[in-house]
Amino acid sequence: MFICLIWMFVLLCSSIADENSIRDVDIFPSSPEIERGSTLKLFCVLGKRYTPHRNASQIIWKLNHELIAQENYNIVNETVSSVTIHNFTYSKAHVKCFTKYLGNEQLLVHTEVKSGFPPGIPRNISCIYYFDVVLTCTWSSGRETNLKTNYTLYRKINKVPGQIKQEGRVTLLNTMGSCQSKTESCSFYYPDTPYSSSFCFQVKAENVLGEALSDCVPIPLEKIEKFQPPEILSVKKITGIKQLLTLTWKMPEKIIPAQDVTCQVHYKNLYSNSSEFVTVSLNSAEKTGSCNLTGLWDSTEYSVAIRCISDVSIFWSEWSSVKTASTEEKAPLEKVDLWRVIESSHSDGSRSVHLMWKPLNSFPPPGRILGYKIQYFPENNVALKITNNSTDNKISLLLNEEAYIISITAYNSAGNSPEAILRIPSTDEKTFQKIEAVRTFTTNEEVVVEWITSKPEVTEYVVEWYQELETDPFGRSWQYISNSTSWKTSKKNFKPFICYNISVYPLYGNKVAAPYSIQTYVQEKKPSEGPVADTGIPGKNEIIIKWKEISKDKRNGFISNYTIFYKPEDGKELNETVNSDVLQYRLKSLQANTQYTVYIMASNEAGGTSGEPKTFKTLKFNKEDIILIALPIGLSMFFLLGLWITCILKKQAFKKVCWPDIPNPAGSIAVEWPLHVSVNNSFWKGVTSEAKTMDFEDLSVLEQPFSEENHEKSLLMNCENCVSKCTDINTKGMIIGEKKILYEEENEVPKCISPSMSYIITDQDIRSQMHLALIPAKAIQPRGTLGDDVCESQQTSIKNEENYNEEVLKLEDFSENAVFNPYLKNSVKTREFLISENLPEHRKNEPNSQSAVSPPLQNNVAGQSYLTLDMFRLATAH
């Protein structure tokens, strides 16, 4: 109540104080500490900055995040608001002052409130005294206050009345010293550590809620003395005395005088977990101590420590630092465990032999081994013995092809061990397998190897094991087995997911027979990676998939099989499974011209792992399809080529067979002149003018009404006379377009042409140029008229490049009868008959059957004969 009055006075004074002396917003009291369960009252004061717009009625209060009810508010004045919180049970909480303005809450100020309890009376006071060093006391608080509590340790003389109470406070009398602490421990340091056997110790605890004082507890310093640990000077063996060690130590200097001391020695050998203790008593005058440790093991190393205590004290010193020593040695009693690894012979016949051995198996061991002596010599020549020394437990020798005997001896300061002897066979020596089968399996904690032997008399074996990828010959492990065909060892000797080679060697004497080897995994997991497929060259309906073995370090177990998964585009996935020794497989029955995705999974007992997928596309045609398509085409081309070559070589024969040389009647016109018909200039002019426009098929020949025999004779005679006469006369050709007509130069009337002579116009080249040639021939006349005709000759000049008359001039024999093709009868489209003017009138009017001339351009006259150039050739051929 008194505190509240003080706060009210402060608040009233604040209203008249200078504005610079008051903060804008303040809360009283700040960070209060109260007793738990009591009532808390806080005040919130608004400064000048808030008063024009806000007042105390707008202040609200919150405890942590909870709004305090309005009935707990109190408005002191316009700037001061208070809040009362009853039964405050929080160990720590925040009280916040807000102002509510325009519907919003604005935090003005807050404070942290703690609640706790008054301190309890300190209990369990104990002290440790290090003579002339430090005096440390500890205690436990009477209760948990949850508030900041300070402690004071008092040291006083126990014979003087200790304390009186005055006005509620404790007053200590005869105090020899004190120390302050915020924890439950406090120390007096030298020189404030005088020795006295009549001290008592008292602790006072106090906080904002009150204080408490413990009783003064008497504690004699000699009883709580704890000195520093002794120092071990030596631990050593005595030469010639086995199983004994001598220990000496020195006591610390700062010890309470006239106090007897007891020391305890702790020792144990390094090969056993058991410990031994020896107690030694010293009087106050002795500064050092010693003792003998007996009943120890030979050649065994021991660790030794020591601690001491005053005879009246309750505290042992700490253990000294540990010292080690070994007992007197004796010669090793057991031979070393020897094994070897023989490499293949070199080109010169030499070979490397790697020897390795284990520490001696005797327990306890005979002592510290100083080294090993290695001796070896050819089996058939002991005089060549060689000796080497080594401090390591392995060595490599280079031996020749002979058999060797090797012995190894371990030695220490007391002597040598028995020899371990091993025989190395010669390179050409054959050893026979005496073990028929070996199997391995694992249990929860062990690996078991069992074997079957064909020689029951063999009783000793060596089991050798090492990692398959191990290349160091000294990285192998081995163990000798006697009188058993099985071997067990802990799984800890093998690594999981690693392949091990295990070999069993039978021994007989110092000889080692051929081993039986197998591989095993003590634990498997699925492969670390899958095989990569090589698709190769696909076919139409099949493909060969190849892959390589997974590397040994990534198999993690024995591969049991491979599975090939393949899937066509937009199709169902298929698979094929093969054994572990198959590294390629032919996929059949594939769809042609289809893209596939393929991948391979390698599996062991723990699972399978797939490799990267590959894609390939089958062919549209395979080799057989291409051959079936190409073979007919090739044969056809070969046949056509042969036929073409044959046609080239036999062109004329094929032409005569397939296209016979049939005369074209449209290419020639045979014109026969009657004996008494003369040719005048008007006719030739008409022929010349008409020839310019006429078609070569519009020419006709004159029919002769006399027999065929007379016709031939007349033709022959007239032609000979005509040719002979024409050679002496210069003539020139009249060319009408592409046709040539012979005529006399003077009167443009052709000479060397009998009035009754027929003219033949031929076509020499239908494709290029058509030349109309007037070829003179003896007109076939009736009998008795040949002597009346006169042939005027004139020499003709013909162009050299146009030799179309050459064949006619070379005729030699006209005696052969002309063969007339009946086909020629109706071939010409127009027949023209030329009648000579010299013919008698009665000849002109003769019937058509004898010598009558058909009207011009009359077509298809029955019974008419024709003469062509081909017929003329036939006649001359004979």
TrEMBL record:
GO CC field: plasma membrane
Compartments, record wording: Cell membrane
Gene3D superfamilies per UniProt: Immunoglobulins
InterPro entries tied to this protein: FN3_dom, FN3_sf, Ig-like_dom_sf, Ig-like_fold, IgC2-like_lig-bd, Type1_Cytokine_Rcpt_Type2
The UniProt record lists the keyword Glycoprotein: yes
Main location per the UniProt record: membrane
Ranges where the Fibronectin type-III domain occurs: 229-330, 334-430, 527-621
CDD domains per record: FN3
Claim: Transcription is one of the keywords in the record: no
Protein topology in the membrane: Single-pass type I membrane protein
Span of the signal peptide: 1-17
Keyword annotations: Cell membrane, Glycoprotein, Immunoglobulin domain, Membrane, Receptor, Repeat, Signal, Transmembrane, Transmembrane helix
PROSITE patterns from the UniProt entry: FN3
Transmembrane segments: 626-649
Highest rank taxon of the organism: Eukaryota
PANTHER family associated with the record: INTERLEUKIN-27 RECEPTOR SUBUNIT ALPHA (PTHR48423)
Family as reported in the entry's similarity comment: Belongs to the type I cytokine receptor family. Type 2 subfamily.
UniProt protein name: Interleukin 31 receptor A
Species assigned in the record: Columba livia
